[in-house]
Structures are given as C-alpha cells and as structure tokens.
Amino acid sequence: xxxxxxxxxxxxxxxxxxxxxxxxxxxxxxxxxxxxxxxxxxxxxxxxxxxxxxxxxxxxxxxxxxxxxxxxxxxxxxxxxxxxxxxxxxxxxxxxxxxxxxxxxxxxxxxxxxxxxxxxxxxxxxxxxxxxxxxxxxxxxxxxxxxxxxxxxxxxxxxxxxxxxxxxxxxxxxxxxxxxxxxxxxxxxxxxxxxxxxxxxxxxxxxxxxxxxxxxxxxxxxxxxxxxxxxxxxxxxxxxxxxxxxxxxxxxxxxxxxxxxxxxxxxxxxxxxxxxxxxxxxxxxxxxxxxxxxxxxxxxxxxxxxxxxxxxxxxxxxxxxxxxxxxxxxxxxxxxxxxxxxxxxxxxxxxxxxxxxxxxxxxxxxxxxxxxxxxxxxxxxxxxxxxxxxxxxxxxxxxxx
Length: 401
Hints:
Layout: E1 2-8, H1 24-27, H2 31-37, E2 41-45, H3 56-63, H4 68-71, H5 75-83, E3 92-101, E4 112-114, H6 122-136, E5 141-147, E6 150-155, H7 182-195, H8 199-206, E7 214-221, H9 229-233, E8 237-240, H10 244-253, E9 256-258, H11 271-283, E10 289-294, H12 296-303, H13 306-330, E11 335-340, E12 357-363, H14 376-381, E13 385-386, H15 392-397
Parallel strand pairs: 1-10, 1-11, 2-13, 8-9, 8-10
Antiparallel strand pairs: 2-12, 3-4, 3-6, 3-7, 5-6, 11-12
C-alpha cells in the first residue's frame, strides 16, 4: 500500500461575488478531482489549533501529523533546516523576505506593495542578498540565501520578538509594523538604501517588474525538535516542495527531500516534474509515503488574483493529480490519497485564515459512491469533521477493509 498527500497551499477560499458567490475551488475545471470525489470520503479538518496563527508552518505540521501546540517553535527555524543552517540552542532564526515598498517619503511612511517582489527569481535574489550580507552582516547577525523572495537571518544570542507578517499588511503604512528592536529596525531601514537603486532593481523597474527594494523580518523562532516521521508512523516518507519551510519540516522529521528542477513555488512551477518525482519515489525507490506540496494557489491568493488562483487549482488537478493517479493505476499499485489545502487564503483578504479546510480521502481499492463534490460547501455539508487536524493523517494510514 502506498500513501500520498497532495497539498494545494492556500487553495481554500470564501464565496466571491465576481464568481457568482462561488469559490475558486468550486468554479475551477478539475475533472480528475471530480472523478475521485464521487468515490471518496469528503470532509473538513481544523488544521490550525485554537489560539495559534494561521500559517503554512502550523498548518503543514498538522497535515503531517505533528500537533503544532507541541512541535511548533517558529517558522524560520524550520526553513533554517532546509537551507542547512546548524542552529545553536541560543540562536533565533528570522525570515528575511525581499519585499517591494513604495519609494516616496520616509521609510516608516512607505507601504508594502508586494510581499514577494514579483516572485523574484532565486538567481536575482541571491545577488541582492549578497549586497545585504556585505553591508549588514556581523558576528551577531548572519544572512542566508533561500528561494525566490524567502531568505533567512540568524540572530546569535537573540530573543523571540513579535514581528509583523508582510503579507498581512499589503497596502498599509509600515511604520506601526516595524520591529521594536532598534537593530532589526535599523537594518530594515538601511536595506532600502542598499537595494532600491541596485542595478537589478533598476532593470526590474524598466521591465515593468516590482523592485525587491527592502528586507522584511518576520517569523522569529528557536531551534526546532521534531520526532522522526518513520519512527512515528512506520512509513518511509519523502517530501516534494519548492518551499524551504516544507523542506525544512522534512529534514527535521527525517523524510527524504526531493529537489525538482524548475520547481519554484510560483504559478509557473514544474508541475509535471513533481508528479514524475512522486511516482519515481513510490514505485522505483519503494517509499511508502510522499507529500506533494504546491505553493501556487497560496501565492495567487496573496496577490488577490481570482483568475490565477483558479488556474493554479486547475494546474494542480491536470498536471499533478491526474498523472500521479494514472501512474499509480497503471502500476496496479494499491494506494490511498489525501487531497487538501493547509489553510484558506481568501482572495478578498490576501492572507491566511484559521477556518477549517476541505479534504478528499480516496482509496483505490474501494468503489464507493457519494453525492458530495470536493469544495468548501459540500465538505461542510458532508458532516465529516476532524477537529484536531493533526489526526487526519491517521485516517489516511488506517486500513478500512
């Protein structure tokens, strides 16, 4: 028996007026998901424990079966694992985004235009981060290049401080969201002077792209301590994701991290490469479990793009789920697959919420029929509710026969 989770990050949403009161998941053309839904268990799961912030960090820990209230120590420390940073117990890891700020006025009066700097390439971002490193790094603050706009700062002998998430304050004046810590504040302010007129950003502006003209600190946390996935579930697992957070969770839990060329966490990621990698690790390398993470729906939610969020869901259906299902069927291999988002990223908010998310659980051996489609509305109507999201993976691994 093989086990698969397909995670459409931020795929869930709320009714949208421009979609006649439907959600992107309801209007997207998803023939593969539709064909599975009529033979699957449909329900909702609460992936964010009460009182915790709704993030991909807490939510994906839940989906993988790790209770965030026990295992969560901050987002950035998980990303540090992926980047290969060996944290000391007294280190604090901090996410260091490259963001687009408005150019006029004093630094504190600027607004965040884009939390991802137009989904800047890792290659361009690395050059800009080298400038930051050259100008700002010292014995207490170390900078590390991640993927696209997502990078890392290690604060030696630091402390966990409250830092605002950039995707929560899009279009807002940044002054009241800047760090209270004077050094972090100063480095962010200085970064604008370093980056705004950098040749890469001049070229980006000339090409109609958003500048990556400031760093933004958020997601501070301490060194994580995760138990082995294989020891916990007696399953040999692998992770396929372009995002350092997910790869870091995999490293921390001892799962295999599969790098897919062209997988970049954007709408134009290598979907087919992820599907092929999943089939290879399950059928050729004899792994028991694979987690396929696709970031695109979440990014489109943050951008507020209805059209592209729908498109991201359709790509997930046709370019990831369809080839994986067809490949497993052709191999005549028994399998169970769980399809779900980690959290909602509603278009109108452009950030995450802690609402429950719809899930689809399919078993290739069972030919059952139900009357529910896979969307937020039918999932609630089904009556199947997982109140502790970290227990949903137990449903995936159980044998109903």
